[in-house]
Amino acid sequence: MRLKYFFLLLQSVWLIASTLHLSTSSNPARLNPLIATDSASSSIAGHLFNALVKYDESGQKIIGDLAQSYRFITPTIIEFKLRHGVKWHDGKPFTATDVVFTYDLIRSPKTITPYATDFRVVKEVKAVDDYTVRVTYTKPYFKALEIWMMGIVPRHILKNEKDIMGSQFNTHPIGTGPYVLKKLEFSKQIVLEANPGYYEHRPRIDNIIFHVIADPMTRFLMLKNGEIDIDGLDSMQYERQLKADFHKKFATVELPSRSYTYLGFNLRLKKFQDPRVREALSLAIDRQALIDILFLNHGKICTGPFLPGSKGFNDEVKAPRQNLARARALLKEAGYDAKHPLSFEIATSNSNAIRPYAAEIMQRQLLRVGVKVTLKVMEWQAFLNTVVMPKKFETVLLGWGLSLTPDPYMIWHSKGDVPGGFNMIGYHSKITDKLIEEMEDSTEPKKIAALQRRIFAQIVADNPYLFLVIPNDIHVYNRRIKGIKPGINGIWEDYISWEKK
Fold first, then answer.
1. Is 189 left (phi over 0), alpha (psi -120 to 50) or beta?
2. 170-225, pLDDT tens digit by residue?
3. Which of 158, 284, 318, 473 could staple 369 via S-S, CB 3.0–4.6 A?
4. Does residue 249 lie within any of the structural domains?
5. How many beta carbons lie within 10 A of that of residue 61, not counting itself?
6. What's the pTM?
7. Pairing mode, strands 207-212 and 19-24
8. Are residues 74 and 156 in the same domain?
9. What is the 3-state secondary structure (H, E, C) of 387-398?
10. Are 25 and 216 in contact (CB under 8 A)?
């Protein structure tokens, strides 16, 4: 009788446990924050790991995370005081040696990661004692604090790891974050469980389940059926494919995204090294048509590499207007005509519902100036591993998500053109390199902003990308979730305090 009562009690606890159902369009590649470069990995790893610092809810001030506090001893030395009592998911204590180890690991030649460039001006990371870390830079650095928004990894787990890129840790991570990885089933679901020992407090939602659903229509149907609690919608879905009963169950938050969509040229190819070709293709594209057709006015034209509202945005640089006659003339000057047309392939992924359609629209627009475009649409992991990372493409249709203080070095500096680097198109400009280096050596906000605006203008003049669209983020969430506070950081601020009624 007692045994039966025990099982009934267990069953009742299971039934009242709250679960947040989310979706991801692809499997995470590596759940290690040092090498998580795809969106699925980064999103999930964000629940499992903490950094030393983070932005506050205003997005303007940097506050402690694993660090209780910090101070600049000199312009090139920062001291972090770490929180006491923080534990890894396996119960081991978090200490300063983990921070030093994380730095050593990200700078190791065995770790292939674009994030290593953030730490290039760090001279030394030293554990003064178990709860004090002192970082010395080779020179003043405009992102001296922001680079420590990188997740910290455990020394006691990884200190003897010989192959970090192929480590079991990448699929069985141990972090300090508010959730613990409970189950990882590729192409099915990833289950996270609330960390009862989290240093702030135990998350009020017991479990988070990421459903791996590659097909956008399937994700959309699951959302409408209430099987997904929070998701992003494209404008067509939001405007044309929802009924009134959906809005009774789901609330909407629309915010300007911190991202843009672009078509990147492989500048290693001779045909794209001719600036006349790049300008012609830019003039052949009607960007407003992309917004009208694909986003139903839920977005704006992107004019360059930094977003409106950021200090580096250059409002003097205007978006190019479609000019088919000029585009044809430039192509003819470059040696292309009806008998010898310019042709190339646009490669993209179907993990984003909009991009394949954007590629088709651009294909039709470019045909009007005699350019023949073929399309390659692939599953995300295959696209990433066989096209993007090995740089085996002519053009790629992709997007960048940007932080509140974007560092142009990783994407736009010549030294970012390395294996695993974000300068995958092979953009090399001595002028841009010099401006970036001058900006990064400064700690004076006005000078940094002025240099960023010059970098913006120079990159746009070089035309390495066709900057296309800044979409709005349209989030919908189950009204049973209480505590969501939309802000500049999105909707995930203080999510550990959410409740699902």
1. beta
2. 999 999 999 999 999 999 999 999 999 999 999 999 999 999 998 889 999 999 99
3. 284
4. no
5. 8
6. 0.73
7. parallel
8. yes
9. HHCCCCCCEEEE
10. yes
Cβ distance 472 to 299 under 8 Å? yes
The pLDDT assigned to 16 comes to: 58
Q: Exposure of 371 by Cβ count < 10 A (0-12 exposed, 13-18 middle, 19+ buried)?
A: buried
- Compute the 3-state secondary structure of the chain and give helix, strand, coil in percent, each to the nearest 5: 35, 25, 40
CA distance 50 to 70: 16
- Do 221 and 275 belong together in one domain? no
Provide the pLDDT confidence category of residue 39 given band limits of 50, 70 and 90.
confident
For position 184, which CATH number holds?
Answer: 3.40.190.10
Task: Report the number of distinct structural domains present in the chain.
Answer: 2
pLDDT of residue 85: 96
Domain contains 421:
yes
Tell me, what's the pLDDT at 441? 84
- Judge whether 49 and 151 are in contact, CB under 8 Å: yes
Tokens 């917004």, residue located: 291
Residue 95: which domain range? 17-229+480-501
Question: Which residue type is seen at 457?
Answer: A
Token code pair at residue 120: 């290039």
| Counts of helices then strands in the chain (DSSP H, E) | 16, 20
* CATH for 281: 3.10.105.10
